[in-house]
Amino acid sequence: RKAGAERRKSVESKPIDIKITHPDRVVYPDDSYTKQDVVDYYTSIMKWFLPGVVDRPTSVIRCPEGTAKACFFQKHLIPGLKQVGSVTMKEESGARATYIYSRDAGSVIELVQFGVLEFHPWGSTIEQPDLANQLVFDLDPGDDVAWPRVVAAARLMHKLLAQLGLASFLRTTGGKGLHVVVPLNPGCAWAQVKDFAHAFAATVVQAHPLEFIATATKAQRSGKIYIDYLRNSRGATSVASYSLRARSGAPVAVPLRWSELGKLKSGHDFDIRSTPRRLARLRSDPWAGIDDVRQDLGAIIGKLR
Ligand code: ATP
Ligand code: MN
Ligand code: MN
């Protein structure tokens, strides 16, 4: 198999051959966006979207009758898929399960044809599912947290990670918060990633106890920013960069430069319309260089203790 950029190029240039049924079906009723609008969105941003999903086991959110009806968070194979990859692996519980992954644009559009709106990849690939190649700190503002505090929180995480020698990258979620993504190369065993994520979150909470919380009990989160470090284990997922969200307004999870953080107004500043416009205007990838970052956690966990 081809590696890296070469493979990405051949993956992108393959023509899409998927028949879309019910293209006029309205899937975002508040905004009148149709299934064809969703197809057109993913097609137009495909070269930006693929690097974040190709060859990663991926859970999807399917809304076959649109976002006003039932949506399903689906971890496993959907019968009938032809262009989507599948891989059978051991579950966390020890049982075997079949996961899906996108190979190319055809896979993505086939999933959209099957009603998928959101893509949630693992932090590892089908080749090395036991080695994380990214870590995600999911910043979830509780009720009564004003947006500038979320901005400050992300900025602080960025700074503290940099002090440990770790480069990190910023993404809106298309929802309420932000993700701070740490690429890992070489890949890192999930146990170590989990330990680091927990220890780092605990350190931040200890230093800023009024601002942050890292325990999962919902009641205590009000007025604080929950650092959801639990996104970091084998089989856990986070929303893909450039994925749509199945929420009113058709918001999108969008990678940003750190220098753009200050002008953000929310975690859902970008949507199905504004995201392609943003990408058409960009001179370079806001996450440029992420594939060249070489960093792992081995030497760093000790620094936190
Ligand atoms: P927000 O900024 O609104 O928090 P988010 O994408 O970070 O958006 P979270 O609720 O914090 O949303 O969830 C974090 C991640 O957990 C999701 O992106 C998703 O990948 C994953 N997840 C795990 N199980 C589910 C589920 N049943 N339904 C939805 N997401 C799930
Ligand atoms: Mn979140
Ligand atoms: Mn969360």
TrEMBL record:
Source lineage: Bacteria, Pseudomonadati, Pseudomonadota, Gammaproteobacteria, Lysobacterales
Transmembrane segments: none
Protein name stated in the entry: DNA ligase (ATP)
Full-protein interval shown: 547 to 851 of 851
Species of origin: Luteibacter rhizovicinus
Biased composition range(s): Basic and acidic residues: 3-13
